[in-house]
Amino acid sequence: MSFPKGFLWGGATAANQCEGAWNLDGRGESVADHFTKGDRQTPRYFTREIDKNKCYPSHEAIDFYHHYKEDIGLFAEMGFNIYRMSISWSRLFPNGDEEAPNPQGVLFYKKVFMELKEKNIEPLVTISHYDIPYGIARKYGGWKNREFIDFYLNYCKTLFTEYRSLVKYWLTFNEINVLANGYGDIMAAGMLPKADCPMFYTEESPETKSNRFQALHHQFIASAKAVALGHEIEPDYKFGCMIAANLPYGYTCNPDDQLFAQREFNLKNYFCGDVLCRGEYTPMARRYSEEENISIMMEEGDGEILRKGAVDFYSFSYYMSSCVSADTGLEGSTGNMTEGIKNPYLETSDWGWQIDPKGLRYYLNEVYGRYHIPVMIVENGLGADDVWENGEICDTYRIAYMKSHIEQMHEAIKDGVELLGYTPWGCIDLVSLSTGEMKKRYGFIYVDKDNDGSGDLKRYKKKSFDWYKEVIASNGEKALGE
Ligand code: BGP
């Protein structure tokens, strides 16, 4: 009944959403430090200058920088054997284009990795999680500039050599496909607008679209080169791509809806997956680029670089599914940087994301069926407004969400999927990416900090903490029973 021996159970965070200490010990500004707080109704804003009258959640976040020992202690208490975290690039390279890293930054992550090692927790490190040094974004125009590849590789070289004996699993770019899916010019590509504007604002023109795909191409090359470099430095390193799972169901059995869904699935997952896992742009990607008038400048030799830098495993974030239809007049729904049509069979979270555990099994089968390489779920979870009642947070809704997803993971394993591990998102409460709030919580661990910035950052265990601990101790069995 349980999961395969050695299954990796843990949790996931990202530096800009948990670390804080944004200007300490030589760290430079990151693009993420320029996003203000929003909420479900109010978008986050990007401001070119830091405005003292505005709130920027990444500046303090949950102050993991000063609480890492305590937090890792709590992860160890739950029994984690893996912890997904990211490195703040500008903590190591304050502007991004320095030759040598900031020694205090190098030391900080060394201490974090040592702490994990002592607790027998394997780090899974995202090299770039929406966290680009502001200096190079401003000076070189972001990832559409090919020079970014060298800055990134210099950063990777530092990571791969400094932490050689401490890290084995690496992810090159978080949710790399957001660029292909029309999001993240500022956040994921560091292409800064001339004036302050909402974080997800994209002034769409043939030029901005081409810039986005150009930036994506450079990230593909950077990823492939990083994989090759990493394998050269340490053959035991394992690299994964990281894709935001996008699961669009055709709304009806009208063949037009089904074709639409298939095309969406391909473009939103396999466009990037094929380049990263197979080292090639598939014909479907080429047709799309032609139809959409997207021009991507490639250099001679790029094809070979991509082929030599294929990843070792496929990892993804999964929160929900959506529906699509050729009929445009249907009621819409929102989600993790995706839009679609409301599915009448599914419930939604308080933030409107459609909860679909069976979709996770479907997705696992799809991607494993295509690539035949091991798979890892590196984000999943329920963002909810947790409330204290009688001195505790009784998050049974989170337990139900996780249980239903773990059950479907187990089914997928029985289907034959080689699933390596599971690191649910925001294992400790942290800043929400899309809204910048603290109110949208994912954790097993509650952090005393509110939307208005009040709170003493004290950590508390929620009911889900003990439940997940039992899940891990039983290698999953606890989640499979009644
Ligand atoms: C993913 C990001 C994460 C994370 C998560 C949840 O897209 O990789 O950084 O935040 O979504 O999203 P949110 O924080 O908006 O609820």
Question: Can you characterise this structure?
Answer:
The protein is an alpha/beta fold and 482 residues long. It has one domain (8-481): Glycosidases (TIM Barrel), CATH 3.20.20.80. The chain contains 14 helices and 16 strands. Strands 1-3-4-5-7-9-13-14 form an eight-stranded parallel β-barrel, surrounded by five helices. Strands 2-6 form a two-stranded antiparallel ribbon. A hairpin with a 4-residue loop joins β11 and β12. α11 runs parallel beside α12. The radius of gyration is 21 Å and the shape is globular. The mean pLDDT is 96. The structure holds 6-O-phosphono-beta-D-galactopyranose. 6-O-phosphono-beta-D-galactopyranose (BGP) binds at residues 14, 17, 174-175, 244, 317, 336, 379, 383, 425, 432-434, 440.
Please describe the topology of this protein:
Elements: E1 8-12, H1 15-18, E2 45-46, H2 64-78, E3 82-86, H3 89-92, H4 103-118, E4 122-128, H5 134-140, H6 147-162, E5 169-173, E6 197-198, H7 206-233, E7 238-244, E8 248-250, H8 255-278, H9 283-291, H10 302-308, E9 313-317, E10 322-324, E11 332-334, E12 339-341, H11 357-371, E13 375-379, H12 396-415, E14 419-422, E15 445-447, E16 459-461, H13 463-473, H14 477-480
Parallel strand pairs: 1-3, 1-14, 3-4, 4-5, 5-7, 7-9, 8-10, 9-13, 13-14
Antiparallel strand pairs: 2-6, 11-12, 15-16
Helix pairs in contact: 2-4, 6-7, 7-10, 11-12
The structure holds 6-O-phosphono-beta-D-galactopyranose.
